[in-house]
Each structure stands twice: as C-alpha cells, then as structure tokens.
C-alpha cells in the first residue's frame, strides 16, 4: 500500500484524526457524511482525483466521514469548525491541523485537479518548513520560536483578543447596515405602493377610453 493510500485508509478508519504520521504530505481533504447529497454528487470527481494522486511524493488526497461516531463528529465541529458538508480543507496536516485552510472554489474534477496541481503539490509555510516561507513570515516564525511558553501564552491571548475585537466590530457594523437596509426597504415598500396605486388608476382610466 502506498503512503498516500495508507494515509487515506487511516482517515477512513479513524474518521477525523489527522494523519500525523504523514506530515511530509500536503493534503487536500474532504470532510463528509454518507447521507450528504452534495457529498455524493462530488464523490466521482473526488475519487478520480484521489486515485490519480495515490503515491504522490508531495501531495495527499484523503477523506473522512464526520458522522462515523461521536468522537469524529465532535472533532469536525470543534476542531475544524465544520458546519456543513462537504467541507474541503487543504494545507499541512501537522501541528494538529491548525494550518489547514478551507477550500471554497469549484468542485468539478477540473476545478479540484487544477487547484491540487497549483497548491497541494507545493510546500506550505509552517514552523516545520521555513524554506517555503517568505522572508517576513520566516523572520516572524523565528522570533516566535525564541519565545518562552509563558510569553507564547501571552501572545496567543493577545491574538485571540484581537480576533474577538474584530468580530465585535464586524457585528456592530453589520447591525448598523441592517438597520439602514430595514429603513430603506420600508421606504421602498411605501413608495412602490403609492406608485402602484397610481399605475392602477392610469391603467383603469385607459381601459375606459379604449
């Protein structure tokens, strides 16, 4: 069994446990469930792609059933943020999968194949693969690597606070825009209602003259 095939086997056998033993492979992974209509629709293209990439030295095409058991379902939801199926992830599966990103492009065989060739076949920038990083990112990672666990915890907390602040700012702006939309929608309804009334009057008068 090839490395890629064995990794895919582990994805299926252990559901959503990342193939840590195969960190040298950069993955394009689909998280799915058997009952999912969209998953079944995409299956032929995905299986064709996985077969073509079997044994590839750099890339791995794998899959996992998020509804296999409670552990799998919890992992998909909590760790990978899966809210719908199928969810496609790509990137370096090491470090618990924190560098995996969500694929949001087309799902035909041609779309997936092109993306795999252009992205999965190339190394991803991670702390364990600095050669794939640009100069600034590499410098940042090297700086982080010199930090103590205590300082890393502080930095992580600061980044989490920044994300939360950005989320709150987004929600505030969304609510403001929603209020504007509601107001404009109401204005439109009132205006269109008056215009429609006049339109009906004009149409009825026209009928009496014909």
Provide an overview of this structure.
There is one protein chain. The protein has helices at residues 3-13, 37-53, 70-79, 109-120, 135-145, 149-209, and strands spanning 26-32, 59-65, 87-91, 101-103. By secondary structure, it is α+β, with helices and mostly antiparallel strands. The protein folds into 2 domains: 3-125, Glutaredoxin (3-Layer(aba) Sandwich); 147-210. Strand 1, helix 2 and strand 2 (59-65) form a beta-alpha-beta unit. The longest helix is centred in the C-terminal third of the chain and has 61 residues, at 149-209. It is extended.
Short description, anyone?
The chain is of the alpha+beta class.
What's the number of domains?
2
* Count of helical regions: 6
Q: Estimate the helix proportion, in percent.
A: 55-70%
Radius of gyration: 26 Å
Low-confidence stretches: 1-25
Q: What is the beta-strand fraction? A: 5-15%
The coarse silhouette is: extended
Could you outline the blueprint of secondary structure elements for this entry?
Layout (H helix, E strand, L loop, with lengths): L2 H11 L12 E7 L4 H17 L5 E7 L4 H10 L7 E5 L9 E3 L5 H12 L14 H11 L3 H61 L1
Parallel strand pairs: 1-2
Antiparallel strand pairs: 1-3, 3-4
What labels describe this entry?
210 residues; alpha+beta; Glutaredoxin; 4 strands; 10% strand
């Amino acid at each position: 069994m090839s490395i890629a095939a064995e990794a895919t086997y582990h994805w299926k056998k252990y559901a959503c446990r990342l193939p840590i033993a195969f960190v040298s492979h950069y993955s394009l992974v689909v998280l799915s469930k058997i009952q999912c209509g969209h998953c079944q629709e995409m299956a032929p293209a995905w299986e064709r792609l996985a077969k073509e990439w079997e044994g590839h030295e750099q890339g791995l095409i794998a899959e996992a059933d998020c509804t296999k058991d409670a552990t799998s379902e919890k992992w998909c939801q909590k760790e990978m943020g899966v809210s719908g199926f199928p969810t496609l992830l790509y990137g370096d599966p090491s470090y618990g999968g924190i560098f995996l990103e969500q694929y949001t492009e087309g799902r035909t065989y041609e779309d997936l194949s092109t993306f795999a060739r252009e992205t999965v076949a190339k190394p991803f920038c991670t702390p364990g693969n600095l050669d794939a990083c640009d100069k600034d990112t590499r410098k940042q990672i090297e700086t982080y690597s010199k930090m103590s666990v205590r300082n890393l915890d502080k930095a992580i907390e600061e980044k989490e606070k920044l994300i939360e602040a950005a989320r709150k700012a987004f929600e505030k702006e969304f609510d403001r825009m929603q209020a504007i939309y509601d107001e404009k929608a109401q204005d439109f309804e009132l205006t269109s209602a008056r215009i429609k009334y006049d339109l009906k009057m004009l149409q009825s008068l026209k009928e009496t003259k014909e």
